[in-house]
Amino acid sequence: MVRELDSLDLVAGKRLSVVRTDDGLTAQPQVRELDGSWRRARPGDGVAEALLALLAAAPELSTVGSFTVRAWSAPVATGERAVAVDQTNESVIVGDAAVVKWAAHLAAGPHPAPRRLEILRANGFRFMPCPLGMVTWRPKNGAETLVVGVDSYLPGAVDGWTWAVDLIAAAAGTPDASDGEVAAAASAVGVVIAELHAALAVTVSTASSADAERWRATASATLEEARALGDPTVADLLEQRRDLIDELLSGIGAMAGTPVIEGHGDLHVGQVLHHRGGYAVIDFDGNPVLPVTERALPIPAVLDVAGLAQSLSHAAIVARRHHRVDEAALLRVERTAREHFTQSYATHLAELGHDELYDPAYLRGFRLQQVLREIVYAAHHLPRWMYVPEAALPMLLDEGAAGER
């Protein structure tokens, strides 16, 4: 059953609607039929074009009913085609100039993206698709949430899981190959994430004891859920390595007094596009597994770093499954990627004058939390992904993690 809750007229016969379906709230582009009825628009129906035109003509900030329109620098463009790989949004490329992202699953507000993007724009962060505009919606007695975002189109952009897996597989699968390309790519991404955190440093505050206890409790709860949902091998490993796991996760609870920022919150290699100009970070929507009230809260910078670093390990596991690669070579390349990323990040952050934001002592603990979250996510939503965290868990626990805890 579909029930319309609200709508924003774009031009005659085209609108953006917020509708309730059996799966929850969604932002739905709609076009009017000749008989006056409305149907969901498809790429080519011109609704994304109409949104661009509205943004191009609108003031920088305006309110229309329950909708707020932020218009920054949207072009007028024509021609629509779908983006097939986007699972979070329903994305449409318009005229090779812009990407319109209709929110397929509306998250309850407050939504972190509007504020984070405005901060990044104001501080000149250049390693992201240029934000061209967005529309948010505020339900009655509710908080503002994002319904559609518009970014510049990056020609030739490759999804992070694709470029990372291919790069790691190529290095591990070629006899006597140098790891130089992997090291260079990981180092470049480290610079990008350091620039991201430096741009967000204006939001810095200090973690309270309650913050640290919340992080520890969340990690412990994730551990217990992963223990219950993973297969018997996972449960056995978690029991066998209980002392190390408890040490890593309890350390997260000792972070009171450390700096925190409004970080990305859901950073992994899939959020980093590779394009002709380098690398670009996308999707500032916060971590979807967290309660709504926590998605916009400040985080330690190391949490973002851990998410990206651990996803490089996951990319190596995917490469092992889909490519003929030597196991020892793959582990070498995975370590090269992870270490060059973290070293480049820390070095460049210090060069930017913000080294106080990052404490690598907690890196391994947050990486472990991410693996446990992947187990929970796979069990609930994507069973075919379970092989990744099940392989990543012993890899992480067996590391000789000098300088980490």
Write the layout of secondary structure elements.
Elements: E1 3-11, E2 14-21, E3 24-32, E4 38-40, H1 47-57, E5 61-64, E6 67-71, E7 80-82, E8 89-94, E9 98-103, H2 113-122, E10 131-137, E11 145-152, H3 160-173, H4 180-199, E12 205-206, H5 209-229, H6 232-240, H7 242-252, E13 259-260, E14 272-275, E15 278-281, H8 301-322, H9 327-351, H10 363-380, H11 387-397
Antiparallel strand pairs: 1-2, 2-3, 3-4, 5-6, 6-10, 7-8, 8-9, 9-11, 10-11, 12-13, 14-15
Helix pairs in contact: 3-8, 3-9, 4-9, 5-7, 5-10, 7-10, 8-9, 8-10, 8-11, 10-11
Protein traits:
4-stranded antiparallel β-sheet; alpha+beta; 2 domains; 7-stranded antiparallel β-sheet; 20% strand; disordered C terminus; 15 strands; 405 residues; Aminoglycoside 3'-phosphotransferase, Chain: A, domain 2; globular
Structural features, described:
With 405 residues, this protein is α+β, with helices and mostly antiparallel strands. The chain has 2 domains: 3-152, no CATH class; 160-397, Alpha-Beta Complex (Aminoglycoside 3'-phosphotransferase, Chain: A, domain 2). The chain has 11 helices and 15 strands. The strands form 4 sheets. A 7-stranded antiparallel beta sheet has the order 5-6-10-11-9-8-7, with helices on both faces. It has a 4-stranded antiparallel beta sheet with strand order 1-2-3-4. Strand 10 and strand 11 form a beta hairpin. Helix 5 (209-229) packs antiparallel against helix 7 (242-252). The protein is globular and about 65 Å long. The model is unreliable at 401-405 (pLDDT under 50).
